Amino acid sequence: MFTEGIKIIDAHAHPILNEKYAKDFPFWSAFSEGFQSGASRFNVENTVFYQRSVIELCDFFGCAEGELAAEKNKLNAGELFSKYITAAGIEAVYLDDGFLKEGSRGIKWHSKFVRTKHILRIETAAEELIEKNLAFSDFIDAFKDGLKKNAGHIAAFKSVLAYRGGLEYKKAALKDAKSEYGPVRGKKIRLSARSLLCFLLEIAMLAAADAGTAFQFHTGFGDCDLEIHKANPVCLSNIFNDPIFSKLNIVLLHAGYPYHKEAAWLASVYPNVYIDLGLAVPSLSNAGIQETLCGITNLCPFNRIIYSSDAHFIPELYYLGAISARQNLDAFIKRLVSGREMSIKFAHKAASMILRENALSIYENK
Question: Can you list the domains of the chain with their CATH numbers?
C-alpha cells in the first residue's frame, strides 16, 4: 500500500553472531531482552512477538513450524542474511558493533550482502583505549583523534549512558574525570565512572556537532542491566537545553518506550531531536506498535521519525523488523487517511520519510 516499493534504511542494528558464539545463543533467545538475565525458552515462546515471528518465517519458507529449522539450515549464514535482506527490500544497514564485538561477524562481512555504515559506540571506544594504559592526557588525545578520524565516515556516534547509571547528564570537571581515570587505567573494564563518562560524552557530542554527525542515545526499554525510570529521554534535558549542543542531531533510540510520549514531546519542541522506532518495532504486538505510532505522531512531526530494527544475534530480525514496519505503517497510515487526518499524497510521503528519507537526511546528509 503506502510502503510498497520503498527501499528501507535500517538505521540502527547490530551484527549477527559468528558461528562460535551462535552456539551459546539459541534461536529463541533473540526474541527477548531477558535471555542473559535468565528468561526461559518457555516464557519467550509464549510471547506475541515470538509467535507472530514464527508464522511470518513459515510463510517466508513455505513450510510448517516443525520444518522451519530444517529449512533455515539448508542455507549458510551469508545466504540466509542475503535472502532476508533482499526479500525485505533493505537498501542499507547501520551497525553498532560495540556489543559482543568479539562474538559477532564483522561489519565487512555484512557489507558483502548490503550497503553498511558504522555506528561508533563511544563507551566501547573509550574502554578499548583505557586498556592501553595511557597517561590521562594521552588517553584524552587518543579519544579525540579516534572521534575525528571516524566522524566523516560513520553513520553516527552512540552512547549507552542509560546502562551506565542513567541518562541524566551533568557537565564534568577535568579534575574529576582525571581522578576517576586513575583507578581504571590499563584495565579491561565496563566503564561506569560517572564523571569520566560525562566528560567523554561532552567531547564526543561536540565532535559530532562539529562534523555534522548524528548522535544516538539508548532510551527506554532494554535488558535488565538498566533502571528503566532512568532511561526516560527527558533525563537528557540538560543536553537539549545547552546551546553548545544546539547543532547536534540527537536520535532517541527504541522510541524511548514506554516513554514514547515524552520522546514525542521532545521531538516536537527541540528542532534537533529525532525518534528511532527500533526494538519497539518489531518486538511489540502489532496493536502495541500502532499504539506507539499513535502516541508518537500525536506530537512528533513525521520528518523526525526514523525506522530501524535493532536486529541482533540472528539474521531473521532484519527481515522481521522490516516487514513489521511495512505492515504496521500501512495499517496506521490507512487509519489516518480514512479519518481525513492526512491526504493520500502525504501518506506516501510520510511512509517514505520514516522508512528511508529521514535516515538519509541526518545520517548521510542526502
Answer: 8-121+135-169+196-364 (3.20.20.140)
